[in-house]
């Protein structure tokens, strides 16, 4: 098998930057109410930079045709999060770099809990010194017809964490979008909730917590918040996992997977863990200084609501394996485009003729934009790749849990690969 050198990855970063720079400066969009199917006027829209602590880069209000345009020299060199506010709810749309057109979706809301159906529950454990890090993910479907967003201000998705666990963070992920941090509502005795508008389609709720792990061993009691969910327990090789009803199900992307039959509501699954497992990659400090960006209701937080950090960086290392094939695909596509890195000082990039013409057009369109270093491009690309890594890992676990058909799996996998191609081609 061909070995891919660091030069290829540098080429990928350079190509992504050049492609996005061609569209730097302007985003044009249309706000559409998917419940009514009509463009919607008078909707406030805010553009945020998720790679710079959710800093606002522009804002607008949709016109009579539901359209808006935002121009800024900060647009085009990285991903953008577009937030539309409707009836005090925030609806987010993720815009990859190099996309000047976007449809921003909003929905009417419903308080009917039957609008959503949780169908799977994944629990991931990772030892970290004398601490045991737990990450859980619930997969939720909203198949409402006509399509509405399910929302309650007092909290509309409940979950519970193990006894004596320390809550860390909660995020929601819609479709192939990025993880958006949420505030957790503490209901006491390890029970929490979030107030989040579950839009039609698929949503994942991801949370993390810390447990004591003295002498590299712990007994964890996992409470079931919902009845009938398919369950997976995941841990790295080297960690011994046991519990009544747990069945080994092989490996998935280098992690050991165990299945369990669905539990009744409020039942408890007791899991015993021991061992240190695979070493965790150092990732500390990636998101320090970032401010959380929420998708949900626009309300003031009280003492029972905790702000949460950016992403679940503690677990990015387990997602890296799933991207290997996609990196290979990206390298192949780039090699066909004949994009090269010229010899010279670090950061001095010379590109193929087509790419150079795109860069020249971008320079004319945005002369005031500051130079972007390879390090900056690296950070911006990582923000988009994080979404891909998350999508791949969740997709493979859903396949393992049996919550997705072979046809749906193939379709979702194709979407991920297409997203990578779009990033490569701009």
Tell me, rounded to a whole number, the average pLDDT: 74
Shape: globular
- Fraction of residues in helices? 10-25%
Largest sheet: 8 strands, mixed
Helix/strand-derived category reads alpha+beta
Distance between the ends: 28 Å
Could you list some keywords that capture this structure?
25 strands; 4-stranded mixed β-sheet; globular; single chain; alpha+beta; 426 residues
Structure description:
The protein is an alpha+beta fold and 426 residues long. The protein has a domain at 321-425. Helices cover 21% and strands 35% of the residues. The chain has helices at residues 6-21, 324-337, 353-365, 374-401, 406-425, and strands at residues 26-33, 38-39, 44-49, 55-61, 67-71, 80-86, 89-95, 101-106, 109-110, 116-128, 131-142, 149-150, 157-160, 166-174, 180-182, 184-188, 191-194, 201-212, 217-223, 230-235, 240-242, 247-252, 255-260, 268-274, 305-306. The longest helix is centred in the C-terminal third of the chain and has 28 residues, at 374-401.
In short:
The chain is an alpha+beta fold and 426 residues long. It has helices at 6-21, 324-337, 353-365, 374-401, 406-425, and strands spanning 26-33, 38-39, 44-49, 55-61, 67-71, 80-86, 89-95, 101-106, 109-110, 116-128, 131-142, 149-150, 157-160, 166-174, 180-182, 184-188, 191-194, 201-212, 217-223, 230-235, 240-242, 247-252, 255-260, 268-274, 305-306.
